[in-house]
Design goal:
208 residues, transferase, alpha+beta, 9-stranded mixed beta sheet, 34% helix, NAT9-like, Aminopeptidase, 9 strands
Length: 208
């Protein structure tokens, strides 16, 4: 079940991944008002209340794993909400085969794009998926016009396997061979795992 990561912090050089909690929802909601992000993520704008419900379902669903991406240069130190740059998700989309994971990355803060944040966050999530969730095949579905994202996944050894003209999206896939697994773990061997409860600062906010 995806509650597996509720006390997990993964700290990389550029980004730190933390569980998605109620504290992150207002900022996330603000991002998702952007028409560009709605288009790139193929999502509808939600009310703040709906976003809170969504966060709770993400936390409790057995087929989703999500982390909020924080800027390592800012957190710990600054408040999480002001250190947020995006999110990274893993969905177990195939009920018959729990080793297939669909990965999504969003760097929502425009000033943080093109700086390698997305790449590191994606690698960290993939390594987590391989080590903790037993994922052996990754898929990414990306809007055709999102060239930066397609290009990044290809650099991470994903291959284009399908194009849907109806959804105007490209599906990329990576089968994690022993060699790929080795590469992935090498790319992320600097990542430290911590307890979220120990690292987070008491913000005087009770977590739901």
């Amino acid at each position: 079940a995806m509650k597996i990561n509720q006390d997990t912090v993964l700290r990389g050089k550029k980004v730190t991944l933390v569980p998605y909690t109620a504290v992150h929802v207002p900022r996330y909601h603000e991002w998702m008002q952007s028409e560009e992000l709605q288009r790139l993520t193929a999502s509808e704008p939600l009310s703040l209340e709906q976003e809170h419900e969504m966060q709770r379902s993400w936390r409790d669903d057995a087929d989703k794993c999500t982390f909020i991406v924080l800027d390592s240069g800012r957190w710990p130190g600054q408040a999480e909400e002001s250190s947020m740059v995006g999110d990274v998700n893993l969905f177990l989309t195939n009920a018959e085969d729990p080793t297939v994971g669909e990965i999504e990355i969003m760097i929502a803060e425009p000033s943080c794009r093109g700086r390698g944040f997305g790449k590191e966050a994606t690698l960290m999530m993939m390594a987590y998926g391989v080590r903790k969730l037993g994922i052996t095949t990754f898929e990414a579905k990306i809007g055709q016009e999102n060239e930066a994202s397609i290009c990044m996944f290809k650099k991470l050894h994903f291959k284009e396997v399908a194009v849907s003209s109806i959804f105007q999206e490209v599906t990329l896939r990576l089968d994690v061979s022993d060699q790929e697994r080795q590469w992935l773990l090498e790319q992320t061997n600097h990542v430290e795992e911590h307890s979220y409860a120990e690292l987070r600062q008491p913000a005087g906010v009770l977590d739901t």
